[in-house]
Amino acid sequence: MSALRQNLACIAMLLGTAAGKPQLSGQADARAAMVSRIRAAVRAAAPSADNPALARALAAVQEVPREAFVPTTLRSEAYHEIPLPIGYDQTISNPYIVAIMTAAADPGHNAKVLDIGTGSGYQAAVLAKLAGQVVSIEIVPQLADQARERLTRLGFANVAVHTGDGYAGWPERAPFDAIIVAAGAARVPQPLLDQLKVGGRLVMPVGRSWATEQILVVTRTSDTEYRRCSLGWSMFVPLTGQGKRPQNANGLFEKIPLCFENEVAHPDFEPATPK
Questions:
Q1: Closest by alpha carbon to 261, among 218, 230, 221, 235?
Q2: What is the DSSP letter of 173?
Q3: b/e string for 231-246 if b means 16 or more Cβ within 10 A?
Q4: H or E stretch at 101
Q5: 229: exposed, middle or buried (Cβ count in 10 Å: 0-12, 13-18, 19+)
Q6: Which of 192, 196, 262, 270 supports an S-S bond with 46, CB 3.0-4.6 Å?
Q7: Given this model, what pLDDT does residue 267 score?
Q8: Cα gap 61→64, rounded to integer Å
Q9: CB 268 within 8 Å of CB 82
Q10: β-pairing, 112-116 with 90-92?
């Protein structure tokens, strides 16, 4: 090889390294650090919440490149535990909240999961690492189209994204082993409860007003009975469509038993501007 060709090869190798490996390594390192912080924060809040379900959820979070689900201009913020805007008055949830909600749902390897509020597709991607099938519904057509393309491009073949009102669920694919709703409402939509399998869990922020939401874990114990517990206070973007909370709604916190010895959820003050 001539000296010129050797020099060009070295330059190409250095450019490729600078543009590729360190960047990927840095993102992986940032993701691992974030996962460690989330686990430490959960353990500090409620030691019993640092359980096998959380370990499985965090393993999934560890595998999903959150930077691919946020706007390009915000990728430097991808591994901070904060929600980020994704357009259309919607956000990608704080990864801490994604982790604890996923752990609460705890889908098995062959589970069928319903994800309400696809957004950019991040929650669906995390669930896809754990479950057999994920049905995800997004009411904003543009976000649904973007998430569908993104999840397909990233190889999440076990996720089906539908455009529609998540209040109605997806009865054609019911019953579901787990349901996660990433938007707040005054109450859990009855169609979602009806589509939950006996023994399954629904995880959703619920409150009479945006400021009094708490993340509920609802377990269906029989055809007609449900058991509820709370992960703690939260503030999400609101459910729209049929499940939209009345404007200027208010009320006090509903007293619901905690799922653990202390609250593990905390509010992020995500924007509550209805569409």
A1: 230
A2: G
A3: bbbbbbbbbbeebbbe
A4: helix 95-105
A5: middle
A6: 262
A7: 78
A8: 5
A9: yes
A10: unpaired
**Dihedral of alpha carbons 190, 195, 197, 200, sign:** negative
| Rounded-to-integer distance, Cα 114 and Cα 131, Å | 10
**Structure tokens, 53:** 């379900």
Q: CA–CA separation, 230 vs 204, rounded Å?
A: 10
CB of 223 within 8 A of CB of 175?
Answer: no
Residue 96's DSSP bridge partners are: none
Closest Cα partner for 126 from 181, 57, 174? 57
| Residue count (the chain) | 275
Residue 97: alpha-carbon gap to chain centroid: 7
Q: Which residues contact 205 (CB under 8 A, 6 or more apart)?
A: 181, 183, 184, 185, 213, 214, 215, 216, 234, 235, 236
Query: In degrees rounded to 5, what are phi and psi of residue 128?
Result: -65, -25
- Mean pLDDT over each residue of the chain, to the nearest integer: 88
Tell me the two tokens of residue 58: 């965090």
pLDDT number for residue 13: 34
β-partners of residue 112 are 133
- Report how far residue 192's alpha carbon sits from residue 39's, in angstroms, rounded to the nearest whole number: 30
List, for the chain, all residue ranges whose pLDDT scores fall below the cut of 50.
1-25, 270-275
- What tokens were used for 191? 């169609």
What are residue 111's phi and psi, to 5 degrees? -70, 150
Strands 133-138 and 159-163: parallel
**What's residue 269's pLDDT?**
54
Percent of the chain with pLDDT over 90: 77
Cα separation of 58 and 52, whole Å?
10
Active-site residue set: 93
